[in-house]
Amino acid sequence: MDGDKTVTVPGSVGVIGGGRMGAGIAQVFATTGATVFVAESDESAADAARKRVSDGLAKAAERGKLAEEPAVVLDRVTVSGDLARLPSNVDLVVEAVPERVEIKVDVLSRAESVVSDGTVLASNTSSLSIAELGAALREPGRFLGMHFFNPVPASALVEVVTAPATRDVVTDRVREWVRALGKTDVVVRDSPGFATSRLGVLLGLEAIRMLEEGVADAKAIDDAMELGYRHPMGPLRSTDLVGLDVRLAIAEHLHSTLGERFAPPQLLRDKVAAGELGRKSGRGFYDWS
Ligand SMILES: NC(=O)c1ccc[n+]([C@@H]2O[C@H](COP(=O)([O-])OP(=O)(O)OC[C@H]3O[C@@H](n4cnc5c(N)ncnc54)[C@H](O)[C@@H]3O)[C@@H](O)[C@H]2O)c1
């Protein structure tokens, strides 16, 4: 891959896990003209992933964000329940499977055994160690974090997370691909929570503690940050959109790596135990039903 200075958009991309994030990642790469292969855990999960990509494209077309018909873009996307069918010549593989080391290591190693030497491998993890995930690979130099944000098509940022082993040529290429998607990259050294999750989760946890202590209600806390500090979205509304379960898992990881300031508040644990996971379950800190 060294020496090739002409590349802008990857011609073909593999996405592992076609959930909320994976479907969005597949959508944005297919929209730039790439051929995309999405690998899901089985055929019924593949059907659901295909529908997510299709719905995402329909929504983008409704908003006037697609230069082509949605069906034309969708034609470039193949969704399969079998990772072994990943084409070997993809330029990039991004995994977006659940935030668990063992699942991520498993799918990344399986992908590496299929793809060619020039393929870049990336993880969309929000908080796990890129060095630890990369250590399971034969060639960790081709691996880094590509941390997309939710919803992927509308978000402006991709955090590019480099481990000590990541080769500079790989980082440079990925930064170029991010810009080709019309997004901005920030390069962050591999460390717990990177830049975004570390700061975003800390703010969210403090807002939950303030709610617990009765300092103010959810809307007042969010308004304070939205109007007082010009945050586009308050920390509690943002936690509802990300998912309380997702936030709790990240907080637990940061608690174990960075210390007490990331200890998850009891209210967060109680809400997750009660199934109040935010917008996706109809209720979190707000009522979304
Ligand atoms: N939700 C967010 O706001 C957000 C933001 C940034 C990053 N992330 C990260 O993105 C990743 C995915 O999050 P999500 O919210 O899209 O989760 P999700 O649960 O919506 O999607 C995960 C998908 O992976 C699939 N999957 C599970 N095991 C698999 C396997 N072995 N092979 C192939 N597919 C498999 C599931 O069927 C599911 O469709 C996580 O690492 C998360 O931390 C999430």
What are the SSEs and their pairings?
Layout lengths: L11 E5 L3 H12 L3 E5 L3 H20 L7 H5 L2 E4 L11 E4 L5 H14 L5 E4 L6 H5 L8 E6 L8 E6 L5 H13 L3 E6 L6 H17 L5 H11 L6 H8 L1 H15 L7 H8 L16
Parallel strand pairs: 1-2, 1-4, 2-3, 4-5, 5-6, 7-8
Antiparallel strand pairs: 6-7
Nicotinamide-adenine-dinucleotide binds next to helix 1, helix 2 and helix 4.
Pathway: Lipid metabolism; butanoate metabolism
InterPro entries: 3-OHacyl-CoA_DH, 3-OHacyl-CoA_DH_NAD-bd, 3HC_DH_C, 6-PGluconate_DH-like_C_sf, 6PGD_dom2, NAD(P)-bd_dom_sf
GO molecular function: NAD+ binding; oxidoreductase activity, acting on the CH-OH group of donors, NAD or NADP as acceptor
Brief account:
This protein has 289 residues and is α/β, with parallel strands linked by helices.
Structure notes:
The protein has 11 helices and 8 strands. The chain has an 8-stranded mixed sheet with strand order 3-2-1-4-5-6-7-8, with helices on both faces. The chain folds into 2 domains: 12-189, NAD(P)-binding Rossmann-like Domain (Rossmann fold); 195-281, N-(1-d-carboxylethyl)-l-norvaline Dehydrogenase, domain 2 (Orthogonal Bundle), CATH 1.10.1040. It has 289 residues and is of the alpha/beta class. Helix 7 (196-212) crosses helix 9 (235-242) and helix 7 (196-212) packs across helix 10 (244-258). It has helices at 20-31, 43-62, 70-74, 101-114, 130-134, 168-180, 196-212, 218-228, 235-242, 244-258, 266-273; strands at residues 12-16, 35-39, 77-80, 92-95, 120-123, 143-148, 157-162, 184-189. The site of nicotinamide-adenine-dinucleotide has 28 residues, from helix 1, helix 2 and helix 4.
